[in-house]
Amino acid sequence: MRHAILHSLGEPTTSQGGALRERLGRLARCSLVGSILLLGGAGTQARPAQDRALAALPDAPALGAGTDARPVAAWNAFCGRHPGECAVDLAEPTRITLTPAVRSTLDGVNRRVNARIRPLTDMAHWGVVDRWDFPDDGVGDCEDFQLLKRRMLVERGLPRRALRMTVVIDDIGEGHAVLMVRTDRGDLILDNKTNAILSGPRTGYTFIKREGQDGPAWVTLNGGASPVATANR
To answer: Rounded distance, CA 66 to CA 57, Å?
Structure first.
């Protein structure tokens, strides 16, 4: 009697109920598999975008360091005023892992400082041939640009030990200062003469020396002779 009543109301019989449960089970399994495939597909789609972003980052040669070198005299005076800027923390890495986020940070700081600071020689600014300092009054020459960039990059979490002040002979044959960013993809150069971040060879400069990474001594680059000053704007 119960079987007849249930059947008339549309409730499945035992055999029908078993078939229905089996179909629902298959649907649930298909739904679960579909969800896994969709989630896997989203991850698979995200990875190529990340790979493309990483592939777009530059590969730059590392600029080989040589023997110890003396910094320019103005650097020593700067360190006397700002000893923390010249200290080397051996616990920090010597190179930065270059990711799209790090590259974006470098680009942003480089452009911002280049736009914000007005170029002015040390003689016009301070009445001396060469003085290294932060351009907190809105004007400065090449090394002042780079010192501010480094301070801002350190504030954004990059290790100072991988951000090295560097002396070069520029494209017009004068002493010039740039900021070398040492990365796992090579050495990149931040410069106030351009917003482009370039590898050393692409700048066209002759690299003379940079801050060392193991102590206060600087190191030679390419065995170049040191300019007397870096007074180039």
So the answer is: 27
CB neighbour list of residue 79: distance below 8 Å, 6 or more residues apart: 85, 86, 216
CA distance 216 to 88: 7
Q: Is the separation of the CB atoms in 163 and 181 below 8 Å?
A: yes
The Cβ-side half-sphere exposure at 36, using a 13 Å CA radius, reads: 6
The DSSP code for 214 is S
- Give which of 190, 126, 196 is closest to 163, Cα–Cα: 190
Distance from chain centroid for Cα 197: 11
Q: Cβ distance 41 to 190 under 8 Å?
A: no
* C-alpha to C-alpha distance for 70 and 216, rounded to whole angstroms: 9
What does the pLDDT look like over 83-118, one tens digit per residue? 999 999 999 999 999 999 999 999 999 999 999 999
C-alpha to C-alpha distance for 156 and 130, rounded to whole angstroms: 29
Q: Taking the mean position of all CA atoms in its chain, how far away is CA 161? A: 13
**So what's the pLDDT on residue 29?**
44
* Entry pTM: 0.74
